[in-house]
Design a protein that fits this description.
eight-stranded mixed sheet, alpha+beta, 187 residues
Length: 187
């Protein structure tokens, strides 16, 4: 995530976050897609979210490049793609939308998930597990290992709670201890 800004029409500074993707303009060009707090997105032209989704649908903004296609990376690299890609375009669109929410001070999908996790740890019902699963699945796939802020843990506790049918009281107590900050902040 890259902190960026642009000047508004009246000279005001509009905060944003830059996300990496490709523009498919004949070739494929690695670029920073600027997502701004006013809901505008710069993808080699300033557009609103609906227009951005149209740019994605027509293949202007992509997250994957076919093997052998030419990639340009602004004065750093120009050559044939042999890369493996990990971000699906639909998941990238979800990330852009969530980034707008973050910049506008709205509830993000990660925060919704952490709140659902706190509810589940406090009251581990099937209904709360279902809510936790839905909240976790709303997070873009490529960001799901960072929800609890521990890249090394890769959201093990969240996945354990979602995937396991029966969760022992011992495991719940361990998760409550390990994620005490979640319970303090969101309960």
């Amino acid at each position: 995530m890259l902190q960026i800004y642009r000047n508004g029409e009246n000279g005001e500074i509009i905060r944003g976050i830059g996300l990496s993707a490709f523009i498919h303009n004949g070739g494929y060009y690695q670029t920073i897609i600027g997502v701004f707090e006013d809901g505008k997105i710069n993808c080699w032209g300033l557009v609103n979210f609906e227009e951005f989704k149209n740019q994605v649908a027509r293949g202007w903004v992509v997250t994957e490049v076919p093997k052998g296609a030419m990639i340009g990376c602004h004065h750093l690299y120009y050559g044939n793609s042999t890369l493996e890609f990990c971000i699906e375009i639909d998941e990238f669109v979800k990330e852009v939308e969530d980034t707008i929410d973050l910049l506008q001070g709205k509830q993000t999908v990660a925060k919704t998930c952490i709140q659902a996790f706190a509810r589940f740890l406090t009251l581990p019902t099937e209904e709360n597990k279902s809510s936790l699963r839905a909240a976790y699945n709303a997070i873009p796939k490529h960001l799901r290992i960072y929800v609890l802020g521990d890249m090394g843990g890769e959201d093990y506790a969240l996945r354990w709670c979602i995937e396991n049918r029966d969760i022992s009281q011992e495991i719940l107590e361990r998760f409550k201890k390990d994620y005490e900050w979640v319970l303090e902040r969101y309960n």
